Amino acid sequence: MFVDTAKIFIKSGDGGDGSISFRREKYIAFGGPDGGDGGDGGDIILVSDPNLTTLLDFTYKRKYLAERGGNGSGSKCFGKNGETLYIKVPMGTVVRDVETNKIMVDLSHPGEKYVVAKGGRGGRGNVRFTTPTRQAPDFAEPGMPGEERFISLELKVLADVGLLGFPNVGKSTLLSVVSKARPKIANYHFTTLKPNLGVVAVPGIQSFVMADIPGIIEGAAEGVGLGIQFLRHIERTRVLIHVVDISGLEGRDPFEDFVKINEELKKYSIKLWDRPQIIAANKSDMLFDDQVFEDFKKKVGELGYDRVIKMSAATNQGVEELMKEAARLLSTIPVTDIEISEEDKFVPEEKKFTYSIRKEDGVYVVEGSFVDRLLASVNINDPDALRYFHKVLKNKGILQELRDLGIEDGDMVRLKDFEFEYLL
Protein backbone atom coordinates (compact mmCIF):
# COMPACT_ATOMS: atom_id res chain seq x y z
CA MET A 1 0.00 0.00 0.00
CA PHE A 2 1.25 3.49 -0.87
CA VAL A 3 0.08 6.32 1.39
CA ASP A 4 1.18 9.84 0.52
CA THR A 5 -0.91 12.06 2.82
CA ALA A 6 -1.69 11.88 6.53
CA LYS A 7 -3.13 14.06 9.29
CA ILE A 8 -1.96 13.66 12.89
CA PHE A 9 -2.37 15.38 16.26
CA ILE A 10 0.75 16.35 18.20
CA LYS A 11 1.22 17.78 21.69
CA SER A 12 4.55 18.64 23.28
CA GLY A 13 5.05 18.10 26.99
CA ASP A 14 3.79 20.56 29.60
CA GLY A 15 6.38 22.11 31.88
CA GLY A 16 6.60 20.77 35.41
CA ASP A 17 5.38 22.90 38.34
CA GLY A 18 7.76 24.80 40.57
CA SER A 19 7.97 23.58 44.17
CA ILE A 20 6.85 25.38 47.33
CA SER A 21 9.24 24.08 49.99
CA PHE A 22 11.12 25.33 53.05
CA ARG A 23 14.34 24.02 54.48
CA ARG A 24 13.74 21.94 57.60
CA GLU A 25 16.96 20.54 59.02
CA LYS A 26 18.24 19.88 62.51
CA TYR A 27 20.52 22.57 63.93
CA ILE A 28 19.54 25.03 61.15
CA ALA A 29 17.18 27.66 62.51
CA PHE A 30 14.86 29.66 60.28
CA GLY A 31 15.48 27.57 57.19
CA GLY A 32 14.49 29.56 54.13
CA PRO A 33 12.65 28.57 50.93
CA ASP A 34 14.30 25.85 48.86
CA GLY A 35 11.66 24.87 46.30
CA GLY A 36 13.25 23.93 42.94
CA ASP A 37 12.08 24.67 39.42
CA GLY A 38 9.95 22.31 37.36
CA GLY A 39 11.50 20.55 34.37
CA ASP A 40 10.83 21.60 30.78
CA GLY A 41 8.35 19.58 28.75
CA GLY A 42 9.60 17.38 25.92
CA ASP A 43 9.75 18.71 22.34
CA ILE A 44 8.33 16.90 19.32
CA ILE A 45 10.84 16.71 16.46
CA LEU A 46 10.27 15.38 12.94
CA VAL A 47 13.24 13.58 11.35
CA SER A 48 13.50 12.68 7.67
CA ASP A 49 14.47 9.03 7.20
CA PRO A 50 15.69 7.87 3.75
CA ASN A 51 14.69 4.30 4.63
CA LEU A 52 10.97 5.19 4.76
CA THR A 53 9.00 5.39 1.53
CA THR A 54 5.38 5.95 2.62
CA LEU A 55 3.30 7.58 5.36
CA LEU A 56 1.57 4.26 6.06
CA ASP A 57 2.53 4.23 9.77
CA PHE A 58 0.47 7.37 10.35
CA THR A 59 -2.75 5.63 9.31
CA TYR A 60 -2.47 3.43 12.42
CA LYS A 61 -1.24 5.99 14.92
CA ARG A 62 -2.58 9.53 14.67
CA LYS A 63 -1.85 10.98 18.12
CA TYR A 64 1.63 11.80 19.40
CA LEU A 65 2.29 13.15 22.91
CA ALA A 66 5.67 14.14 24.34
CA GLU A 67 6.59 13.59 27.98
CA ARG A 68 5.67 16.16 30.64
CA GLY A 69 8.39 17.83 32.69
CA GLY A 70 8.79 16.66 36.27
CA ASN A 71 7.76 18.88 39.18
CA GLY A 72 10.40 20.63 41.25
CA SER A 73 11.04 19.52 44.83
CA GLY A 74 12.71 20.64 48.03
CA SER A 75 16.45 21.17 48.55
CA LYS A 76 16.39 23.27 45.34
CA CYS A 77 15.99 20.09 43.29
CA PHE A 78 14.96 20.66 39.68
CA GLY A 79 12.31 18.53 38.04
CA LYS A 80 13.37 16.15 35.26
CA ASN A 81 13.04 17.50 31.73
CA GLY A 82 10.51 15.65 29.58
CA GLU A 83 11.98 13.34 26.95
CA THR A 84 12.00 14.61 23.38
CA LEU A 85 9.76 12.64 21.03
CA TYR A 86 11.30 11.97 17.62
CA ILE A 87 8.94 11.10 14.76
CA LYS A 88 10.47 9.64 11.59
CA VAL A 89 9.00 10.63 8.23
CA PRO A 90 10.06 9.82 4.64
CA MET A 91 12.37 12.19 2.80
CA GLY A 92 10.31 14.57 0.68
CA THR A 93 7.63 15.14 3.33
CA VAL A 94 6.04 18.59 3.36
CA VAL A 95 4.54 19.49 6.75
CA ARG A 96 1.61 21.91 7.09
CA ASP A 97 -0.24 23.40 10.04
CA VAL A 98 -3.84 22.26 9.47
CA GLU A 99 -5.48 25.32 11.05
CA THR A 100 -3.67 27.89 8.85
CA ASN A 101 -2.72 25.56 5.95
CA LYS A 102 0.74 27.15 6.06
CA ILE A 103 3.87 25.15 5.25
CA MET A 104 5.98 24.51 8.36
CA VAL A 105 8.89 22.69 6.74
CA ASP A 106 10.00 20.68 3.73
CA LEU A 107 12.07 17.71 4.92
CA SER A 108 13.97 16.84 1.77
CA HIS A 109 17.47 15.95 3.08
CA PRO A 110 18.61 12.80 4.94
CA GLY A 111 18.46 13.20 8.72
CA GLU A 112 16.97 16.70 8.54
CA LYS A 113 15.20 17.72 11.77
CA TYR A 114 12.47 20.19 12.62
CA VAL A 115 10.94 21.06 16.00
CA VAL A 116 7.24 20.89 15.19
CA ALA A 117 6.09 21.51 18.78
CA LYS A 118 8.18 23.10 21.54
CA GLY A 119 7.80 21.78 25.07
CA GLY A 120 6.47 24.04 27.82
CA ARG A 121 8.91 25.78 30.15
CA GLY A 122 9.08 24.53 33.73
CA GLY A 123 7.65 26.78 36.46
CA ARG A 124 9.91 28.55 38.96
CA GLY A 125 10.09 27.28 42.53
CA ASN A 126 9.50 29.54 45.53
CA VAL A 127 13.25 30.02 46.09
CA ARG A 128 13.19 32.18 42.94
CA PHE A 129 10.79 34.68 44.50
CA THR A 130 12.84 35.62 47.55
CA THR A 131 13.68 39.30 47.97
CA PRO A 132 15.07 41.33 50.90
CA THR A 133 11.49 42.18 51.90
CA ARG A 134 9.91 38.83 50.92
CA GLN A 135 12.07 36.20 52.56
CA ALA A 136 9.54 33.35 52.80
CA PRO A 137 7.43 33.31 49.62
CA ASP A 138 4.63 30.78 49.90
CA PHE A 139 3.98 30.51 46.19
CA ALA A 140 5.55 29.13 42.97
CA GLU A 141 4.83 29.05 39.26
CA PRO A 142 3.00 26.26 37.45
CA GLY A 143 4.62 24.89 34.32
CA MET A 144 3.87 26.40 30.94
CA PRO A 145 1.59 24.30 28.71
CA GLY A 146 3.09 22.57 25.70
CA GLU A 147 2.09 23.31 22.12
CA GLU A 148 -0.61 21.27 20.45
CA ARG A 149 -1.87 21.26 16.90
CA PHE A 150 -3.01 19.12 14.01
CA ILE A 151 -0.45 18.83 11.23
CA SER A 152 -0.76 17.36 7.74
CA LEU A 153 2.02 15.36 6.13
CA GLU A 154 2.28 15.28 2.36
CA LEU A 155 4.86 13.08 0.65
CA LYS A 156 6.31 14.39 -2.59
CA VAL A 157 8.53 11.75 -4.16
CA LEU A 158 12.18 12.76 -4.52
CA ALA A 159 13.24 12.04 -8.07
CA ASP A 160 15.50 13.78 -10.61
CA VAL A 161 13.47 12.74 -13.65
CA GLY A 162 9.72 12.26 -13.85
CA LEU A 163 7.94 10.12 -16.45
CA LEU A 164 4.59 11.46 -17.52
CA GLY A 165 2.08 10.63 -20.19
CA PHE A 166 -1.30 9.03 -20.70
CA PRO A 167 -1.95 5.55 -19.27
CA ASN A 168 -0.56 2.56 -21.18
CA VAL A 169 2.02 4.51 -23.22
CA GLY A 170 4.93 2.46 -21.84
CA LYS A 171 6.24 4.45 -18.85
CA SER A 172 6.45 1.43 -16.54
CA THR A 173 8.14 -0.66 -19.22
CA LEU A 174 10.73 2.08 -19.76
CA LEU A 175 11.46 2.29 -16.02
CA SER A 176 11.86 -1.49 -15.77
CA VAL A 177 14.29 -1.49 -18.71
CA VAL A 178 16.64 1.22 -17.42
CA SER A 179 16.56 0.37 -13.69
CA LYS A 180 16.00 -2.51 -11.27
CA ALA A 181 12.51 -1.25 -10.46
CA ARG A 182 9.80 -3.82 -11.11
CA PRO A 183 6.52 -1.95 -11.56
CA LYS A 184 3.38 -3.80 -12.52
CA ILE A 185 3.06 -3.97 -16.32
CA ALA A 186 -0.10 -5.01 -18.18
CA ASN A 187 -2.04 -4.05 -21.27
CA TYR A 188 -4.76 -1.97 -19.63
CA HIS A 189 -5.11 1.57 -18.34
CA PHE A 190 -4.08 2.59 -14.82
CA THR A 191 -1.85 -0.44 -14.26
CA THR A 192 0.32 1.79 -12.06
CA LEU A 193 -1.56 2.87 -8.95
CA LYS A 194 1.37 4.38 -7.04
CA PRO A 195 4.60 6.17 -8.01
CA ASN A 196 7.51 3.82 -8.68
CA LEU A 197 11.13 4.91 -8.34
CA GLY A 198 14.20 3.44 -9.96
CA VAL A 199 17.89 4.33 -10.10
CA VAL A 200 19.09 4.68 -13.68
CA ALA A 201 22.68 3.48 -14.07
CA VAL A 202 23.81 3.54 -17.72
CA PRO A 203 27.56 3.22 -18.47
CA GLY A 204 29.16 6.56 -19.22
CA ILE A 205 26.60 8.76 -17.40
CA GLN A 206 25.98 9.92 -13.84
CA SER A 207 23.26 7.79 -12.24
CA PHE A 208 19.96 9.47 -11.33
CA VAL A 209 16.58 8.65 -9.84
CA MET A 210 13.58 8.35 -12.16
CA ALA A 211 9.94 8.18 -11.09
CA ASP A 212 7.07 6.59 -13.00
CA ILE A 213 4.04 8.72 -12.15
CA PRO A 214 0.61 7.05 -12.48
CA GLY A 215 -1.33 7.96 -15.61
CA ILE A 216 -2.36 11.61 -15.82
CA ILE A 217 -5.30 12.27 -18.11
CA GLU A 218 -7.36 15.21 -19.29
CA GLY A 219 -8.92 16.92 -16.26
CA ALA A 220 -6.22 15.68 -13.88
CA ALA A 221 -5.65 19.17 -12.42
CA GLU A 222 -9.32 19.12 -11.34
CA GLY A 223 -8.96 15.63 -9.87
CA VAL A 224 -10.17 13.45 -12.78
CA GLY A 225 -8.81 9.90 -12.78
CA LEU A 226 -5.77 9.46 -10.53
CA GLY A 227 -5.17 13.10 -11.39
CA ILE A 228 -4.00 15.60 -8.85
CA GLN A 229 -3.39 12.81 -6.34
CA PHE A 230 -0.04 12.16 -8.07
CA LEU A 231 0.75 15.43 -9.87
CA ARG A 232 2.43 16.58 -6.64
CA HIS A 233 5.09 13.89 -7.06
CA ILE A 234 6.63 15.48 -10.15
CA GLU A 235 6.94 18.92 -8.53
CA ARG A 236 10.46 18.15 -7.34
CA THR A 237 11.77 16.69 -10.60
CA ARG A 238 14.26 18.74 -12.60
CA VAL A 239 13.58 17.07 -15.95
CA LEU A 240 10.41 15.53 -17.38
CA ILE A 241 10.35 12.71 -19.92
CA HIS A 242 7.04 12.91 -21.73
CA VAL A 243 6.23 9.46 -23.11
CA VAL A 244 3.78 9.24 -26.04
CA ASP A 245 2.54 6.22 -27.99
CA ILE A 246 3.74 7.13 -31.47
CA SER A 247 2.20 3.97 -32.98
CA GLY A 248 -1.36 5.17 -32.47
CA LEU A 249 -2.53 1.54 -32.35
CA GLU A 250 -5.09 2.35 -29.66
CA GLY A 251 -6.70 4.94 -31.89
CA ARG A 252 -5.18 7.92 -30.06
CA ASP A 253 -3.39 10.84 -31.68
CA PRO A 254 0.07 11.22 -30.03
CA PHE A 255 0.20 14.98 -30.66
CA GLU A 256 -3.25 15.57 -29.12
CA ASP A 257 -2.24 13.49 -26.09
CA PHE A 258 0.95 15.52 -25.73
CA VAL A 259 -0.94 18.83 -25.82
CA LYS A 260 -3.59 17.66 -23.32
CA ILE A 261 -1.03 16.50 -20.75
CA ASN A 262 0.84 19.79 -21.00
CA GLU A 263 -2.38 21.71 -20.53
CA GLU A 264 -2.96 19.78 -17.28
CA LEU A 265 0.57 20.63 -16.13
CA LYS A 266 0.01 24.30 -16.88
CA LYS A 267 -3.25 24.34 -14.91
CA TYR A 268 -1.59 22.68 -11.95
CA SER A 269 1.66 24.67 -11.89
CA ILE A 270 3.27 27.10 -14.34
CA LYS A 271 6.70 26.21 -12.93
CA LEU A 272 6.06 22.53 -13.58
CA TRP A 273 4.85 23.19 -17.10
CA ASP A 274 7.97 25.27 -17.78
CA ARG A 275 10.32 22.48 -16.74
CA PRO A 276 12.60 20.98 -19.48
CA GLN A 277 10.90 18.13 -21.31
CA ILE A 278 12.31 15.32 -23.41
CA ILE A 279 9.70 13.74 -25.63
CA ALA A 280 10.01 9.96 -25.91
CA ALA A 281 8.14 8.72 -28.98
CA ASN A 282 7.64 5.17 -27.69
CA LYS A 283 6.47 1.99 -29.44
CA SER A 284 8.27 3.04 -32.63
CA ASP A 285 8.88 -0.65 -33.40
CA MET A 286 5.15 -0.90 -34.11
CA LEU A 287 5.17 2.11 -36.44
CA PHE A 288 4.50 1.21 -40.09
CA ASP A 289 5.16 4.64 -41.55
CA ASP A 290 8.16 6.72 -40.38
CA GLN A 291 6.48 9.85 -41.73
CA VAL A 292 4.12 9.72 -38.70
CA PHE A 293 7.12 10.33 -36.42
CA GLU A 294 8.48 13.11 -38.63
CA ASP A 295 5.08 14.86 -38.69
CA PHE A 296 4.82 14.54 -34.90
CA LYS A 297 8.33 15.91 -34.42
CA LYS A 298 7.54 18.89 -36.62
CA LYS A 299 4.32 19.71 -34.73
CA VAL A 300 5.90 19.63 -31.27
CA GLY A 301 8.86 21.60 -32.65
CA GLU A 302 6.47 24.37 -33.60
CA LEU A 303 5.40 24.48 -29.92
CA GLY A 304 9.03 24.97 -28.86
CA TYR A 305 9.93 21.37 -27.94
CA ASP A 306 13.07 20.29 -29.81
CA ARG A 307 14.14 17.27 -27.75
CA VAL A 308 12.28 14.39 -29.44
CA ILE A 309 13.73 10.88 -29.40
CA LYS A 310 12.35 7.96 -31.36
CA MET A 311 12.46 4.86 -29.17
CA SER A 312 10.99 1.53 -28.16
CA ALA A 313 11.17 0.36 -24.55
CA ALA A 314 10.24 -3.16 -25.69
CA THR A 315 13.23 -3.50 -28.07
CA ASN A 316 15.64 -1.04 -26.33
CA GLN A 317 15.81 1.09 -29.47
CA GLY A 318 16.79 4.67 -28.56
CA VAL A 319 16.64 3.99 -24.79
CA GLU A 320 20.33 4.67 -24.14
CA GLU A 321 20.17 7.89 -26.17
CA LEU A 322 17.14 8.99 -24.12
CA MET A 323 18.88 8.32 -20.80
CA LYS A 324 22.07 10.12 -21.87
CA GLU A 325 20.06 13.16 -22.92
CA ALA A 326 18.30 13.17 -19.54
CA ALA A 327 21.65 12.93 -17.72
CA ARG A 328 23.09 15.75 -19.85
CA LEU A 329 20.13 18.00 -19.02
CA LEU A 330 20.36 17.16 -15.31
CA SER A 331 24.03 18.20 -15.25
CA THR A 332 22.98 21.72 -16.30
CA ILE A 333 20.19 22.13 -13.72
CA PRO A 334 21.11 22.63 -10.04
CA VAL A 335 19.23 20.77 -7.30
CA THR A 336 16.93 23.17 -5.45
CA ASP A 337 14.59 22.75 -2.50
CA ILE A 338 10.90 23.39 -2.85
CA GLU A 339 10.16 27.12 -2.84
CA ILE A 340 8.04 28.36 0.07
CA SER A 341 6.73 31.90 -0.32
CA GLU A 342 6.48 34.20 2.69
CA GLU A 343 2.72 34.07 2.28
CA ASP A 344 2.66 30.25 2.56
CA LYS A 345 5.29 29.94 5.30
CA PHE A 346 4.13 29.06 8.81
CA VAL A 347 5.32 31.45 11.51
CA PRO A 348 4.72 30.15 15.04
CA GLU A 349 2.97 32.61 17.30
CA GLU A 350 4.81 33.76 20.39
CA LYS A 351 3.12 32.17 23.39
CA LYS A 352 1.48 34.93 25.41
CA PHE A 353 -0.91 34.92 28.33
CA THR A 354 -3.76 37.28 27.56
CA TYR A 355 -6.63 38.82 29.49
CA SER A 356 -9.76 40.87 28.89
CA ILE A 357 -11.77 43.16 31.19
CA ARG A 358 -15.53 43.64 31.14
CA LYS A 359 -18.10 45.10 33.51
CA GLU A 360 -20.94 42.83 34.62
CA ASP A 361 -23.62 43.92 37.12
CA GLY A 362 -21.33 46.58 38.55
CA VAL A 363 -18.38 44.17 38.96
CA TYR A 364 -15.19 44.43 36.87
CA VAL A 365 -14.43 40.93 35.57
CA VAL A 366 -10.85 40.14 34.52
CA GLU A 367 -10.55 36.84 32.63
CA GLY A 368 -8.26 34.97 30.27
CA SER A 369 -5.21 32.68 30.28
CA PHE A 370 -3.17 35.27 32.21
CA VAL A 371 -5.68 35.16 35.07
CA ASP A 372 -5.67 31.35 35.15
CA ARG A 373 -1.89 31.22 35.38
CA LEU A 374 -1.61 33.97 38.00
CA LEU A 375 -4.19 32.39 40.33
CA ALA A 376 -2.51 29.00 39.92
CA SER A 377 0.79 30.58 41.04
CA VAL A 378 -0.19 32.23 44.31
CA ASN A 379 -1.81 31.41 47.59
CA ILE A 380 -4.16 34.38 47.99
CA ASN A 381 -4.53 33.62 51.71
CA ASP A 382 -0.83 34.33 52.29
CA PRO A 383 0.06 38.03 52.85
CA ASP A 384 3.37 37.81 50.90
CA ALA A 385 1.67 35.99 48.02
CA LEU A 386 -1.13 38.56 47.99
CA ARG A 387 1.38 41.41 47.77
CA TYR A 388 3.06 39.64 44.86
CA PHE A 389 -0.37 39.18 43.26
CA HIS A 390 -1.09 42.92 43.38
CA LYS A 391 2.40 43.73 42.11
CA VAL A 392 1.84 41.53 39.05
CA LEU A 393 -1.53 43.21 38.37
CA LYS A 394 0.21 46.58 38.49
CA ASN A 395 3.20 45.56 36.32
CA LYS A 396 0.93 43.93 33.76
CA GLY A 397 -1.04 47.17 33.46
CA ILE A 398 -4.34 45.71 34.63
CA LEU A 399 -4.78 48.23 37.45
CA GLN A 400 -4.13 51.13 35.08
CA GLU A 401 -6.61 49.69 32.55
CA LEU A 402 -9.24 49.42 35.30
CA ARG A 403 -8.69 53.11 36.13
CA ASP A 404 -9.03 53.98 32.43
CA LEU A 405 -12.37 52.14 32.40
CA GLY A 406 -13.60 54.34 35.28
CA ILE A 407 -13.25 52.07 38.28
CA GLU A 408 -13.85 53.85 41.57
CA ASP A 409 -12.79 53.32 45.15
CA GLY A 410 -14.79 50.46 46.66
CA ASP A 411 -15.76 48.81 43.35
CA MET A 412 -15.39 45.03 43.18
CA VAL A 413 -12.95 43.22 40.91
CA ARG A 414 -13.40 39.50 40.11
CA LEU A 415 -10.80 37.07 38.82
CA LYS A 416 -12.53 33.69 38.44
CA ASP A 417 -13.71 32.79 41.98
CA PHE A 418 -11.55 35.41 43.70
CA GLU A 419 -12.99 38.87 44.38
CA PHE A 420 -11.34 41.90 45.98
CA GLU A 421 -12.31 45.49 46.66
CA TYR A 422 -10.49 48.11 44.64
CA LEU A 423 -8.79 50.78 46.77
CA LEU A 424 -7.19 53.87 45.34
What's the gyration radius in Å?
Answer: 32 Å
| Major sheet | 6 strands, mixed
What is the number of strand segments? Answer: 18
CATH superfamily of the largest domain: P-loop containing nucleotide triphosphate hydrolases
Label the overall shape: elongated
Distance between the termini: 71 Å
Order of helical and strand elements: EEEEEEEEEHEEHEHHEHEHEEHHHEE
Strand order of the largest sheet: 10-11-9-12-13-14
Q: What is the CATH C-level name of the largest domain?
A: Alpha Beta
| Number of helical elements | 9
Number of domains: 3
Tell me the fraction of residues in β-strands, as a range: 15-25%
Average pLDDT value? 83
Judged by helices, strands and strand pairing, the structural class is: alpha/beta
CATH architecture of the largest domain: 3-Layer(aba) Sandwich
The residue fraction in helices comes out at 10-25%
Q: Uncertain runs with pLDDT below 50, 5 residues or more?
A: 183-193, 218-227
Q: What name is given to the CATH topology of the largest domain? A: Rossmann fold
Organism: Clostridium magnum DSM 2767
Family: Belongs to the TRAFAC class OBG-HflX-like GTPase superfamily. OBG GTPase family.
Domain Obg: 1-158
Keywords: Cytoplasm, GTP-binding, Hydrolase, Magnesium, Metal-binding, Nucleotide-binding
